[in-house]
Amino acid sequence: MFASGLAGALVKEMDGSSDENPIILEQLPCCQFDIFLAVYTSRYHSLTFTNNKMVDLLCFSSKYLCVAAQNLAIHHISTQCWSYSDITLASIAVQYGVRTWFKHAFAHLVEVCLSQFTPAKRRLLGHPIFIAIATLHEIIYEHRCIVACEPPELEEHALDCSNHDRCTSDWAQVWWNRMGQFILDGRNPLSYKEASQRFQKFKFGWMVDGCKKKMFEVIWSNKAFGITNELIKETAVCLEKEHIFEPCLSSDDESLGVDE
């Protein structure tokens, strides 16, 4: 009798035993739990998915291993990548082990000036990711300087080119004066593609159309900056392997309405 009475007293005091003693999940914001409940109830179909709500759902589902909710959050963020900042995408990819959009976000972040990364943004990205971005900035800038100073070589002149030396000299001069200016502009450096499009509109001195056509075939082949694009992709892949660990979760049988 005394044992059963003691057990009854303990049950009353336990969290979750009654409405007066709810289970309290520490460090769980109400907003995250609210969006989780909405997803698993009839409110799901009338729910407005904002960016913050989806990040909250991803945070909750990753912490408490809710596969269906996690898949829903990842699906929504993936289809709405354009509405999230690249820093947000990269940071939540690392924090919650999602590789889906990391390469996309990382490639865009490499194009951002380092001065725009405030201390808060650097903390959000994490030290390894920011160091990788800063290192790539140095490598790409050095490569830009090399490309600006070393125009593609005109290996064979067109048949109607009457002065090969003058043609080669004019090509190098216009390249440095125009292309070099475009890709090394301190205020507004252009991408290789944008710079090439503007560069094509200029006159090239004694260069005949045949020689000009040959050189722009080399430019449009993207041999100059294709190397940097590959380097960015390879760096993103390495960062994924080292810092983004996707959880091994069994798939839920339940579906939350995500269209495959």
The biggest sheet amounts to: none
Number of domains: 2
How many individual helices? Answer: 12
Structural class comes to mainly alpha
Mean pLDDT: 81
Range of strand content:
under 5%
Instruction: Please state the overall shape, judged from the principal axes of the Cα atoms.
Output: elongated
* CA-based gyration radius: 29 Å
Strand tally is: 0
Distance between the termini: 58 Å
Helix content: 55-70%
Given as residue ranges, the uncertain stretches (5+ residues, pLDDT < 50) are 1-6
Q: Secondary-structure element order, as H and E?
A: HHHHHHHHHHHH
Could you list some keywords that capture this structure?
single chain, mainly alpha
How do the helices and strands line up, and which of them pair or pack?
Layout: H1 2-13, H2 30-39, H3 51-63, H4 67-79, H5 86-96, H6 102-110, H7 119-125, H8 127-149, H9 164-184, H10 192-199, H11 209-220, H12 226-243
Model description:
By secondary structure, the chain is an all-alpha fold. It has twelve helices and no strands. Helix 6 crosses helix 12. It is elongated. The N terminus is likely disordered.
Q: What would a concise description of this structure say?
A:
With 260 residues, the protein is an all-alpha fold.
